Structure formats: C-alpha cells, structure tokens
Amino acid sequence: MDPNWNDGQPIYRQLRDKVVAMILEGVLTDGDALPSVRNVAAEYSLNPLTVLKGYQQLVDEGLVEKRRGRGMFVTEGARTQLVHGERQRFLAEQWPRVRATIERLGLDPAELLAAPLKEKKADAEASAGGGEATGPGTGRLRANRQL
Known about the structure:
Elements: H1 11-24, H2 37-43, H3 48-60, E1 64-67, E2 71-74, H4 78-105, H5 109-128
Antiparallel strand pairs: 1-2
Helix pairs in contact: 1-3, 2-3
C-alpha cells in the first residue's frame, strides 16, 4: 500500500479504499486476515483509532468480519459484492460520459475493442524479442499483501 496519504480525503476512508482495491484485485481473498490495527498503525505512523475507523467501515459494509481474539477477515463473497457495486457505479456515473465521448469523437466500437488487443500483442512481441516494452500498460506494479 502506498504510504502517501491524500489531503483531500480522510485517511480512514483512503485506508478503506485501499483494502477494497486489494480485494477487487485478488490480493486479499475470502477468508484472508487483514493486517492488525496495531501493525498498520505502526507501519504507516497512523493513530490506531484511524485504522480502526477504516476497518469498521469495511465491517459495516459486510466486506470484513471481526473474529473475537483473532482479528478481522475478508468475508465470503466480498469480491463478488464489490464487483457488483463497482459495475453499477460505472454504468450510472462513468459510462454516460464515456459514451458521450465516443459519440463526440466518432469512434467505432470495434476499433475501441481491438485497441487493447493490439497493445497486448505489441507488448508480448517486445518481451519475446528480449526488448523492453515502453508503451502504455507496461511497468505495472504488482500489489503486495501488505497494506
């Protein structure tokens, strides 16, 4: 997790969002334990109450469960629940703007769908040839299991 915090949003909310991203990306899966409140607070120089508030939001949303004396764990189906919510949010908030941009620019849907395939093919060819791929989509960092 990036230890740099954005001043535009409360830290507990950013912490919650980072855990959600880890669940969506598959870094944390059903039944996985979250790092302890004390560990996260110490590692990122946060107040333990801030970490607890972020975790409590996850509990309130049903994404994480508290197990007395053992810690907090990702609930069964948390990723499915998040994906469903993210899809709904995308369709309601982002898709109308994307669609308007596509129409305004006169883009062909088939061309849009083929563009990522061309990029992946170019990246694969560059990797196979021993060269470094330098186009968009290269150099992605893998998330680690730590917050």
